[in-house]
Amino acid sequence: MQPDVTPARRRPSKEPRHAMPERDALQRAQDFVEVGLGYPEELARAEAERCLQCKNPTCIEGCPVNIDIKRFIGDILEGDYAAGVRTLKERNALPAVCGRVCPQEEQCEKACILAKKSEPVAIGRLERFLGDWELAREASERERPEVAEPSGKRVAVVGSGPAGLACAGELARLGHAVTVFESLHAPGGVLVYGIPEFRLPKSIVQAEIDALVAMGVEIVTDAVVGATYTLGELMDELPASAAREASLLDAGSSRSAPCIRELGFDAVFIGAGAGLPLFLGVPGENLNGVYSANEFLTRVNLMKAYDFPKHDTPVWRGRKVAVVGGGNVAMDSARTAKRLGAEEVFLVYRRTEDEMPARKEEVHHAREEGIDFKMLCSPLEILGHDGWVTGMTATRMELGPADDSGRRAPVCVVGSDFTIDCDTVIVALGTRANPVLTSSAEELELTRRGYIAADEDGATSIPGIWAGGDIVTGSATVIKAMGAGKRSASAIHDRLAVS
Amino acid sequence: MGRPFARRRPPRDAGVYCHLPARLVPKGRPVPFPVVQKRQLSDAVFEMAVEAPAVARKVRPGQFLMLRVGENGERIPLTFSDWDAEQGWVRFIFMVVGKTTHELSHRSVGEDIADLVGPLGRPTHLEGLGRVAVVGGGVGAAVAYPVARGMAEAGAEVTVILGARNADLLILGDQFEKLPISQLVVMTDDGSEGRKGLVTEPLKELCEAAAIDRAMAIGPAIMMKFCSATTRAYAVPTTVSLNPIMVDGTGMCGACRVSVGGETKFGCVDGPDFDGHLVDFEELMSRQRTYADDEREADAAYRKECSCNLT
Ligand SMILES: Cc1cc2nc3c(=O)[nH]c(=O)nc-3n(C[C@H](O)[C@H](O)[C@H](O)COP(=O)(O)OP(=O)(O)OC[C@H]3O[C@@H](n4cnc5c(N)ncnc54)[C@H](O)[C@@H]3O)c2cc1C
Ligand SMILES: Cc1cc2nc3c(=O)[nH]c(=O)nc-3n(C[C@H](O)[C@H](O)[C@H](O)COP(=O)(O)OP(=O)(O)OC[C@H]3O[C@@H](n4cnc5c(N)ncnc54)[C@H](O)[C@@H]3O)c2cc1C
Ligand code: SF4
Ligand code: SF4
Ligand code: FES
Q: Are A120 and A109 in contact (CB under 8 A)?
């Protein structure tokens, strides 16, 4: 019999979790260069040493896509990074991204056995280490997933965020011809227009997208499904006129006539995200200087307004900025405002820091960078003069008894109104489903809140159309969206194999 | 088999641009948006047609597109003035007011623009309108043109009122004349062509004579504001085509929000057409000025580089 290849159960290490080197808070708050520097090799090895290589690795359950964490850490221990990357990529196409932005403390690391007694293994940082190691290699040397023989089937993917990219990558690997339709001029979804450069460098996202393209995935930008194409058209047979044009082209005609792209896909996956920003609904919200986080971050990240006028899109650079909200989006907005030169940035949140949905690490970073947390405050009105924001009145809140969801609901403290002096307000209250696409297909069943109704695999009420990511769940996380995209890819593959 | 369209994409020099509305990523294999026609209508107003077949087959009057001229460019909205689904082009008319429109005016036939996406926004309501006055002010005439044409084709009795500061700034007059409309009234501030005065004067006369059932006003916010005020007195339902600042044009950012009847609406997805009697024009005009300083800076920097003597 083969000896048991799993290393002997390791003894719990006394060593504390290794901190990841970061740029100095004062310095980094001046620019858009990435904050976290990543583990150098020695630190990665030392952190991997902390892993017990458990017989029953609970960490894996904590990861929404069930990465074999124990194995990839084992690969690091053995110094076989290429194997580690392969392990990661079995489940997660974008390790360099997830290692940076996953809320690990809520997921894999929360479930790590060490978390019970001391601190969990820094699984995310190790994942990032491998992801970066891979990206640092020459493109030609990188792990290339084996692409199956062409199946002759064509799948359309709507949206190029994490859900769409994961679905496209998986389908391409399985041999299907994939075309991704993206409404913006650049692919990546929230990864490019939302999450800032200092947390997720865009070159990493681009490298991952290039890898997909190298696998044969076709990405069409500037294509709004629901406007440029309808969902129905994506599924349609080739329109007769287009077929005629196509045959003319095949016959070598050089007639100057454009032809319509052939549509008629065998299946469609919708990963359109939840892109409709919510506002406060208080007076003064349409004053100049009030932004949705989406607009603010899009101007700065996608349109590169921080580099104005080299890039043409402007953004109003406030001196005193109030950001309303407590999630990752609020943290990103606050830290971005700081980097654009704001003297003071306030974070206005209804509950306390403990209830904030943002990642703990980002809350910590924001504090280090000098963001002023105003907890238990709720805006009442945005004040203005001459059309511009001059301040905000808010009321103090206190936490009442826990509600059904177990969260303690904030209630107003009567008579506690006060004014915050500010010239910019950024509203980061979350998003809803954008109706542009869904309203173009009446048969598509929606949930009460306007999201697409879909089952576990993402199958929607229309046969042949799947959906996943934020457009199904509402705002969630990168890895959950990717998991959904990948699950749908398998389901689509199964269906296409049958037909 | 596998990837049929890759095989079928014709070579560029065959003069056939294929099927894609957009660019392919990465940048190595672009399917660009070539300019196929350009015409200068007045000192600062240009008409341009761009090949965009997937977009062209979908456009309806009143809808708009977003474009970026170059790689570092801003996304700006422009309304379709004309399109041809068969030949696969879309046309728009723009006035040079800042850097992006200036740069666009220098794209010549055969050159590409980086991005063009659409059609966006809700189409203008055209059917069952009865007697309509369509008012086009300045470059708004470009938007009024397909709207008036669409209304007339749908059986409405259309009176077009065109306004401009002077004869040089008046655009599309000859094209309107060819439409099956019942009347064309031309107004200039200085009387250098047509009648002297503002577009609100003939509009008021029409209202007074009870000669129209509805009105549509398209142009600068201030003009739409006064047109709406004029018709309000006579309770003539009035639609305006708003032009707030936009970023994505697809409902994702909220930059384009406008107050209509006390409610916040997104200009790009709920509009651009709204009930003129309910729009908060003061707010619209204030929001349009948000980036005035930055725009001046970008514009000045671009002019320094640019050797032309445009306006
Ligand atoms: C500022 C910010 C910070 C965040 N930080 C984190 C974090 O740290 N960790 C984390 O795990 N999660 C974070 N999230 C959440 C995470 O980014 C999302 O849950 C995830 O991106 C959802 O992926 P998706 O693919 O479903 O949608 P998206 O990423 O939203 O992508 C959807 C894409 O579809 C396109 N699209 C939409 N409609 C159409 C249409 N009609 N036709 C064609 N294309 C269309 C959009 O342009 C977009 O590119 C953050 C989100 C934001 C906004
Ligand atoms: C739905 C819609 C349809 C339009 N149709 C036409 C048209 O058919 N022809 C035409 O000439 N103009 C049209 N406009 C206005 C046109 O978009 C602006 O003139 C253009 O964006 C100016 O860009 P710029 O860089 O040249 O000028 P800038 O110097 O940047 O700005 C000059 C002024 O243009 C407006 N503007 C600037 N950026 C934007 C933006 N991103 N979105 C909207 N407005 C902006 C502002 O009010 C600003 O003060 C339309 C606007 C909207 C919203
Ligand atoms: S993908 Fe996210 S949750 Fe899963 S192991 Fe990696 S960091 Fe943890
Ligand atoms: S639970 Fe923690 S210690 Fe155990 S295998 Fe997973 S990461 Fe290692
Ligand atoms: S332009 Fe962004 S929502 Fe309308």
A: yes
pLDDT at B303 over 60: yes
Strand locations in B71-221 (E)? 76-84, 89-95, 112-113, 115-120, 131-137, 157-164, 183-188, 195-196, 214-218
Chains A and B: how many Cβ contacts under 8 Å? 195
**Angle of helix A123-136 relative to helix A41-49, nearest 10 degrees?**
140
Question: Is the shortest distance between the CB of A352 and ligand 4 below 6 Å?
Answer: no
Grouping H, G, I as helix, E, B as strand and the rest as coil, residue B302 is helix
**Integer Cα distance of A401 and A479 in angstroms:** 33
ipTM reported for the complex, 2 dp:
0.87
Q: How far apart are CA B234 and CA A44, in angstroms?
A: 76
pLDDT tens digits for range A233-286? 888 754 444 444 444 443 333 222 223 345 678 999 999 999 889 999 999 999
- Quote the DSSP letter at residue A105: G
Task: Assess whether the previous peptide bond of A309 is cis (omega < 30° from 0).
Answer: yes
pTM of the model: 0.88
For residue B82, list its beta bridge partners: B91
Mean pLDDT of B8-22: 31
Q: Distance (Å, rounded) from C-alpha B210 to C-alpha A97?
A: 65
Of ligand 1's listed atoms, the one at least distance from the Cα of A359 is 8
Quote the DSSP letter at residue A15.
P
Three-class SS state of A17: coil
Mean pLDDT of A34-62: 92
Whether A260 contacts chain B with CB within 8 A: yes
- Strand B76-84 relative to strand B18-19, pairing: unpaired
pLDDT at site A1: 41
The helix/strand/coil state of A464 is coil
Give the pair of three-digit tokens for residue B44: 């600062």
CA-to-CA distance for A115 and A124, rounded, in angstroms? Answer: 14
- A447 φ, ψ (degrees, to nearest 5): -85, 175
Cα separation, A460 vs A445, in Å, equals: 7
Amino acid at A260: I
Binary contact (A434, B251; C-beta < 8 A): yes
| Ligand 4 neighbour A77 (Cβ under 6 A) | no
Tokens of A323: 């950001």
Residue A355 in this model has a pLDDT that exceeds 90: no
By three-state DSSP, how is residue B211 classified?
A: coil
Q: Where are the alpha helices (DSSP H) in B75-199?
A: 99-105, 140-153, 173-177
Please name the residue ranges forming H helices in A55-180: 59-62, 69-77, 81-91, 95-101, 108-111, 114-117, 123-136, 162-173
Measured between CA atoms, the residue of chain B closest to residue A285 is B264
Site to substitute for ligand 4 among A18, A61, A72, A114, most atoms within 8 A of C-beta: A114
A155 touches A488 (CB < 8 A): no
> In chain A, which among 5-44 make CB contacts under 8 A with chain B?
none
Residue B92 · residue B79 · CB < 8 Å:
yes
